[in-house]
Design the sequence.
């Protein structure tokens, strides 16, 4: 369901174009050469660097920082891209505060880590802006691979396989590539059409064909792909959203946060995007925080995030929670929706019950509270849609080996659709890359 322009109280253009543009500027300004040199000097260049272990793609962080320090940022970028071909986006959106920077010795000793994320962005941006692609495609191998899903996992898999000389065909049901990076990340984290530019840069390796408007179970069949191609990789993500199981969830002013963020990311004029005066977001992950912050930046006067568990259980990191509150978002914990109230077609408030964590799990309490709202975004998770594919599942995700092999011979998978996926671009890249290595080894024999 898209955002309703005609819903009472949900209006476009709550604030001026100038104010909106200012609100959606780059969250972290890029480092200049001098700032990068100063930041690089803080690295201890640890021999057994804990930051490398903390990075899902295992980038040699001390090496690329040393390369920046010695004035060779393009070499630093290649060090990054060898492990993470989407290193530019990951430098912008990775939760470094809970990954590499949290493990940094400087963080442990001083409470201020080396700015690994910003240094990574400095290096990768330098090389991409110079229009350099540091990898050379091998001679054609004669092998073909179909990749379903042009998101981070699929793109990482495609690039690595193309490097080995294989011919890649990528299928995606949307009109452009990028997946989560293009459609699902807050606009202030990835500005200036960076996701699209990164895809264009990645495709310069050659040997990758993109086909849009294709969806498994509709106009694309896995059995046909398995017969036509030498290998298949599934990077289909989580295409469906969980619905609120609450009375009134079908009111016009109630929609899912995933669609809201997608519409916002694709909007050419954010002042045309309708937003409520009192916006309520239900959920506790990154999608909830991204939706809430952007609602505030669009001009909503009051934005509240309601999460059913305690603060420390929230999927969004403490950094992201603090970012939200710094923008004026109110986060309320231990609240579970029970009913959405309205007058005729006009949403007025949402009723919640209190919750408590016990040894038996989450327990509802007798106390009830109501939160005023004229627009509600649901961000209670996404789910896998397999359209009858005969794949082994675990916890409602595709079961894979360490290198991404599924229960079907010749079919690999990675990213959010798999049991190891955790809604992070960097994890999806690692899984796509590793599956590509395994696919290549299967060709070699």
Sequence:
């Amino acid at each position: 369901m898209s955002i309703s322009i005609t819903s009472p109280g949900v209006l476009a253009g709550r604030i001026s174009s100038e104010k909106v543009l200012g609100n959606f500027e780059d969250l972290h300004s890029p480092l200049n050469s001098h700032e990068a040199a100063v930041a690089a000097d803080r690295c201890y260049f640890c021999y057994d660097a804990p930051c490398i272990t903390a990075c899902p793609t295992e980038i040699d962080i001390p090496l690329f920082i040393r390369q920046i320090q010695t004035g060779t940022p393009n070499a630093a970028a290649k060090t990054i891209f060898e492990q993470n071909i989407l290193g530019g986006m990951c430098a912008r959106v990775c939760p470094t505060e809970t990954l590499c920077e949290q493990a940094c010795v400087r963080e442990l000793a001083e409470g201020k880590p080396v700015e690994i994320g910003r240094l990574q962005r400095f290096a990768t941006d330098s090389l991409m802006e110079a229009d350099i692609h540091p990898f050379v495609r091998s001679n054609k191998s004669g092998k073909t691979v179909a990749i379903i899903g042009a998101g981070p996992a699929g793109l990482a898999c495609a690039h690595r396989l193309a490097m080995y000389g294989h011919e890649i065909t990528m299928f995606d049901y949307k009109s452009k590539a990028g997946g989560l990076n293009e459609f699902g990340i807050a606009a202030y984290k990835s500005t200036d059409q960076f996701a699209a530019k990164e895809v264009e840069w990645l495709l310069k390796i050659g040997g990758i064909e993109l086909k849009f408007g294709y969806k498994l179970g509709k106009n694309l069949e896995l059995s046909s792909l398995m017969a036509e191609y030498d290998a298949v990789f599934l990077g289909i993500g989580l295409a469906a959203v969980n619905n609120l199981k609450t009375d009134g969830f079908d009111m016009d002013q109630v929609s899912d946060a995933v669609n809201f963020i997608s519409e916002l990311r694709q909007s050419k004029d954010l002042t045309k995007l309708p937003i409520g005066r009192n916006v309520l977001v239900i959920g506790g992950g990154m999608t909830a925080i991204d939706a809430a912050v952007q609602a505030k930046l669009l001009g909503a006067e009051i934005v509240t995030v309601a999460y059913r568990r305690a603060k420390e259980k929230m999927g969004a990191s403490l950094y992201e929670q603090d970012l939200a509150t710094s923008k004026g978002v109110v986060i309320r914990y231990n609240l579970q929706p029970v009913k959405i109230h309205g007058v005729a077609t006009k949403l007025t408030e949402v009723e919640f019950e209190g919750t408590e964590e016990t040894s038996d799990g989450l327990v509802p309490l007798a106390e009830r509270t109501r939160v005023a709202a004229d627009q509600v975004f649901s961000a209670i998770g996404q789910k896998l849609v397999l359209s009858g594919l005969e794949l082994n599942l675990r916890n409602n995700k595709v079961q894979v080996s360490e290198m991404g092999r599924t229960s079907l011979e010749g079919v690999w998978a990675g990213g959010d659709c798999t049991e190891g996926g955790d809604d992070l671009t960097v994890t999806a890249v690692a899984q796509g890359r590793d599956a590509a290595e395994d696919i290549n080894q299967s060709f070699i024999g």
